[in-house]
Amino acid sequence: MDTAAPQNQQSTVKTFPCTSCGAKLSFAPGTQRLKCEFCGAGNDIPKDESVIEEQDFESFLKELVDRQETFESVAVKCGSCGAEQDMAANTFAGKCAFCATPIVAKGYAQRHIKPKSLIAFQIAKPAAQEAFRKWINGLWLAPNELKDYARGDGGIHGVYLPYWTYDCDTYSEYSGQRGRDYTVTVQGSNNTTRQETRTEWTPVSGEVTNRFDDVMVPASPTMKRLSFFGNGRFEHFDTQALVPYADEFISGFTAEAYQVGLAEGYKAAKSIIDGRILVSVRRDIGGDRQQVHGVRTQYSNITFKHVLVPVWISAYRYRDKVYRFMINGQNGAVQGESPKSAWKIFFLVLAVLVVIGVLAMLGEG
Predict the structure, then answer these.
(1) Is 292 within a domain?
(2) CB 151 within 8 A of CB 314
(3) Is 267 helix (H, G, I), strand (E, B) or coil?
(4) Is 254 a domain residue?
(5) Between 179 and which of 35, 92, 271, 289 could a Cys-Cys bridge form, CB atoms 3.0 to 4.6 Å apart?
(6) What is the Cα–Cα distance from 90 to 202, expressed in whole angstroms?
């Protein structure tokens, strides 16, 4: 297993020079190539046919005992301009602050567990910018300043965010009740009748087995914040598209290191797994209604992967509050939050009142 670099040690960086003009190359989303933004030349990324393997959860936890991870910033030296700078503790790839050269720090931000695979960007930056403009234009109450901002580049930048994925087998024993609905005719007042649904309950017990594959848990507070107001499609990533990790895919993007540990991530995954087990228990009980009194579960063959997923983000400030727009870098799903113009709300309310007044006058006439 890779060990953490000593604290305050300067990290070497990896860059990919263009074979035509010498500028530094960045990954081109939706391709298997690095591309030069100056001359347009590119280099193919060698295809890695390695199998993406699951890693044993319990074994890794035992190896991590008494090994403290460090989360300090990492000093890097740009291979293009020679400038030295600190890379934030939660990132391991970005651009030089002085010459904008794409850099990837070696050492993975002093974390013990390295990403073995990733989902590469499929949505290019121009498409993300256009999606931002369309989204803003569809918000009638958005301030004009925000729409002006969207006509530019929208501050869009690409980020690889860390995730844990967990697999496991489960065996669950449950107890509960199965409800069967039936209808009876009830006599009411004044010789009226009505149909009433009642439920007959029967005690049940049983067992269910499940296999869970790639239960995904964000390993960064960034994705947790984005998911707070998210939608299912934005948060969905197809892990069948995972490819073995290579620095080339990261070049030109920001990449975050995990801040949620392996054990902490499993607690979140277990909560998701338990929720899905409950669904399978209710399905096994059957009937029209179900009551679940207790579930006892055994978890086995627990494995994990540490992966990176692609997200385009724009963070914009309006009246001292930050709003975010995001696009899933794999499937293009869009979500965001927007400020609302007080003047536009005022005129909207005024217009509604005018319409109500006109309808009232016509009604009186």
Answers:
(1) no
(2) no
(3) helix
(4) yes
(5) 289
(6) 54
How many domains, in total, are found in the chain? 1
Measured in residues, the chain has a length of 365
Rounded Cα–Cα distance for residues 132 and 337 (Å): 11
Tell me if 243 sits within 8 A of 249, measured CB to CB: yes
C-alpha to C-alpha distance for 99 and 83, rounded to whole angstroms: 9
Assigned domain for 20 exists: yes
The CA radius of gyration of the chain, in Å to the nearest whole number, is 27
- In eight-state DSSP terms, residue 220 is S
Sheet arrangement for strand 33-35? 26-27, 33-35, 42-44
Question: Which residues form the domain of 29?
Answer: 10-169+209-276+301-348
For the CA atoms of 305, 114, 109, 22, the dihedral, rounded to the nearest 10 degrees, stands at: -110
pTM: 0.79
Q: What angle do CA 114, 22, 37 make, to 5 degrees?
A: 75
Give the distance between the most distant pair of CA atoms in the chain: 94
Residues 69, 267: contact at Cβ < 8 Å? no
Q: For the segment 146-180, what is each residue's pLDDT rounded down to a tens digit? A: 666 656 666 788 999 999 999 999 999 999 999 99
User: In the structure encoding, which two tokens stand for residue 283, read together?
Assistant: 């399905």
What is the per-residue pLDDT across 188-247, written as a single tens digit (0 to 9) for each? Answer: 777 788 889 999 999 999 999 999 999 999 998 776 555 544 456 778 899 999 999 998
Spatial distance between the Cα atoms of 224 and 256, rounded to a whole number of angstroms: 13
CA-closest candidate to residue 310, choices 231, 256, 240: 256
Checking DSSP bridges between strand 74-77 and strand 13-14, what pairing results, if any? unpaired
Is residue 110 within 8 A of residue 76, CB to CB? The reply is no
Residue 61, domain member (yes or no):
yes
